[in-house]
Design goal:
alpha+beta, 12 strands, 3-stranded mixed β-sheet, globular, single chain, 2 domains
């Protein structure tokens, strides 16, 4: 393992992205997302993702300099066409419009179309809660996940995320894949030569497997919670696919055409304004909600995202560690 400061992580990410032709707007947005993942010890969404970003670019499956186009679709709907680029800049471009619409209507939705997606949704939810808004977000991916009782991939990992602002405290945020585990975690097990736990995936015959190679290359991942996770995965396919005029996970995989690039699809983000819902009572009602968080923690339970915030404090103070092999692979992108 080697240790880097967060500034060094950002500098490394920016140098790699610029080297491969990403313009400054995309470089800044992508680097912010990568650093956030590494800072919060979400290794599968940190600097490791640079390998996939550059591989996708080399495969011709992402545009490094597309300018997002904002479409005022309806009083409570904004659409942002990413133009085939990675999603962070499109989100950053559309967020002010989404926030204005939520404050006007009480609830608003943003559809990001034609984007290549790699990032954790909690990064976006924290940006929404920082504006005092409640947020939800979801997206499909590639067809890697079998439905409950099936053996062949149909769904993506299809993450779903929620954020709730808290006065003077970190927001309450959860972000989870509807698959049993994020695909990046299985990829990291493969890099490390480690078996995966039972329940994460099956082989080509639909049999439970602990071999990450069999699951990733020949078999399928599984949803969490059996049929319940599968139902949520189907919901994400529908509301962040056909509803916004974008691809399902199977269509994204077809577009990939065997290049093993990052998924190409859309994303649905919903923002709700407590002030518009509650008027003068908003502050009191949000304060009343704190009793729920206190009750959740009273027996030592941990709130979702609490681990990330603890990791964030450590990283801000001490920097982060990377496996030396991963660091070498990232440096090789500069060669």
């Amino acid at each position: 393992m080697i240790r880097l400061s967060l500034d060094e992580v950002r500098d490394l990410a920016c140098r790699v992205l610029r080297k491969h032709g990403f313009d400054e707007a995309h470089t800044a947005a992508l680097a912010d997302t990568l650093v956030a993942g590494q800072r919060d010890e979400c290794a599968s969404h940190g600097i490791y993702r640079l390998l996939g970003l550059i591989a996708t670019l080399r495969a011709g499956k992402v545009v490094p300099n597309a300018v997002p186009k904002v479409l005022d679709q309806a009083p409570a709907i904004v659409k942002v066409d990413a133009g085939g680029a990675f999603s962070p800049l499109a989100f950053r471009t559309g967020l002010p419009v989404l926030a204005d619409k939520a404050r006007s209507c009480g609830i608003a939705a943003m559809a990001i179309n034609h984007c290549v997606h790699f990032s954790a949704l909690w990064v976006e939810l924290e940006a929404i809660t920082a504006l005092g808004l409640v947020g939800l977000a979801c997206n499909p991916s590639h067809a890697w996940v079998a439905p409950a009782g099936g053996a062949r991939p149909v769904f993506g990992t299809n993450p779903f995320a929620f954020g709730w602002p808290r006065a003077g405290k970190h927001p309450f945020v959860f972000d989870f894949a509807t698959s049993a585990i994020a695909r990046g975690e299985i990829e990291l097990h493969r890099r490390a030569g480690k078996p995966i736990p039972l329940g994460w995936g099956v082989d080509a015959n639909g049999q439970p497997s602990t071999d990450p190679n069999l699951v990733l290359d020949q078999g399928a991942m599984l949803t969490f919670g059996g049929h319940k996770g599968a139902a949520l995965a189907a919901m994400v396919e529908l509301i962040a696919g056909p509803l916004i005029g974008d691809l399902t996970s199977q269509e994204s995989l077809d577009f990939d055409a065997g290049t093993k690039s990052l998924p190409y699809h859309g994303e649905l983000i919903i923002a709700l304004d407590p002030v518009r819902f509650l008027g003068d009572a908003a502050e009191a009602e949000l304060a009343r909600a704190e009793a729920l968080f206190t009750a959740m923690q009273q027996d030592g339970a941990r709130l979702p995202s609490q681990r990330r915030y603890e990791a964030r404090a450590r990283s801000d103070a001490n920097g982060v560690t990377l496996p030396a092999a991963l660091h070498a692979d990232v440096l090789a992108l500069l060669a």
